[in-house]
């Protein structure tokens, strides 16, 4: 479970997070939906301990990220930018490097890497260098890295960016599988269809604040609209920065 409580963060003159509070439950996919500049990335970076909030707390399975960053990270998988893979490494080397960073012994890391390679059906590329990989191959390698240590919580920042339809569907299936296994999945997006199709709960954000939260159906009911897209525009007051 992931909880943020009263998070504030000012970057330069911009109030990127403004008293932001919400939680994401186990066994659910929670979407952080907001227009460009809403503060989604800032929130996720704070959760992963990459940014220090000015005030408020971020906790992962009740571990305060600021007090125990290593303990919190063990419970958290971060889906990184798939374009930032180490090109000289093979997926097997890359994934097991991160498994060891999470605190596993070399032997445990080797086994965990073999398991995740089988789970994501990466066998055909697992011993090729990442250089030249397609976007889908990169996505799967990045995701394998995020889940190799079996974290109970996974956060993903705009995971479908740059993916084609097939790979978007593949990622969707993997997220649904993680949810079915009881993981807490939190992802940010400004793509309405993706959020409507996947999320049990949606946190609507703008200007660093929570504007509304609920299931896609509840948000439609709250606003008296038929689609999440119309509900979102009603809540935010504009369709700027949103993709259908
Ligand atoms: N390093 C930085 N320097 C200056 N301003 C920043 C920095 N990081 C974030 N901001 C500002 O903080 C606000 C929130 O940015 P953030 O990247 O968290 O939004 P986002 O919701 O992830 O947007 P997007 O959908 O465009 O990725 C924006 O106004 C952004 O310009």
TrEMBL record:
SMART domains for the chain: AAA
Keyword terms, alphabetized: ATP-binding, Nodulation, Nucleotide-binding, Transport
Domain of life (superkingdom): Bacteria
A GO MF term: ATP hydrolysis activity
InterPro entries in UniProt: AAA+_ATPase, ABC_transporter-like_ATP-bd, ABC_transporter_ATP-binding, P-loop_NTPase
Pfam families for the chain: ABC_tran
Record domain ABC transporter: where: 2-232
Entry's family note: Belongs to the ABC transporter superfamily.
Protein name: ATP-binding cassette domain-containing protein
Organism of provenance: Shewanella psychromarinicola
């Amino acid at each position: 479970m992931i909880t943020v409580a009263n998070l504030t963060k000012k970057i330069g003159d911009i109030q990127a997070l403004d008293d932001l509070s919400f939680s994401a439950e186990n066994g659910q996919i929670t979407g952080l939906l907001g227009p460009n500049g809403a503060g989604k990335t800032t929130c996720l970076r704070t959760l992963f301990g990459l940014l220090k909030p000015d005030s408020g707390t971020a906790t992962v399975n009740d571990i305060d990220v600021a007090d125990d960053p290593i303990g919190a990270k063990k419970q958290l998988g971060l889906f990184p930018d798939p374009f930032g893979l180490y090109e000289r490494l093979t997926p097997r080397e890359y994934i097991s490097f991160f498994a060891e960073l999470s605190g596993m012994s070399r032997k445990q890391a080797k086994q965990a890497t073999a398991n995740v390679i089988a789970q994501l059906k990466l066998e055909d590329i697992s011993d090729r260098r990442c250089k030249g990989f397609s976007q889908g191959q990169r996505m799967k390698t990045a995701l394998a890295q995020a889940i190799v240590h079996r974290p109970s919580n996974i956060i993903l920042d705009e995971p479908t960016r740059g993916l084609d339809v097939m790979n978007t569907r593949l990622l969707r299936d993997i997220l649904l599988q993680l949810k079915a296994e009881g993981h807490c999945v939190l992802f940010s997006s400004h793509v309405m269809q993706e959020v409507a199709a996947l999320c049990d709960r949606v946190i609507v954000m703008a200007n660093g604040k929570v504007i509304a939260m609920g299931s896609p159906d509840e948000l439609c009911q709250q606003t008296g609209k038929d689609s999440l897209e119309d509900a979102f525009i009603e809540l935010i007051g504009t369709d700027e920065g949103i993709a259908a």
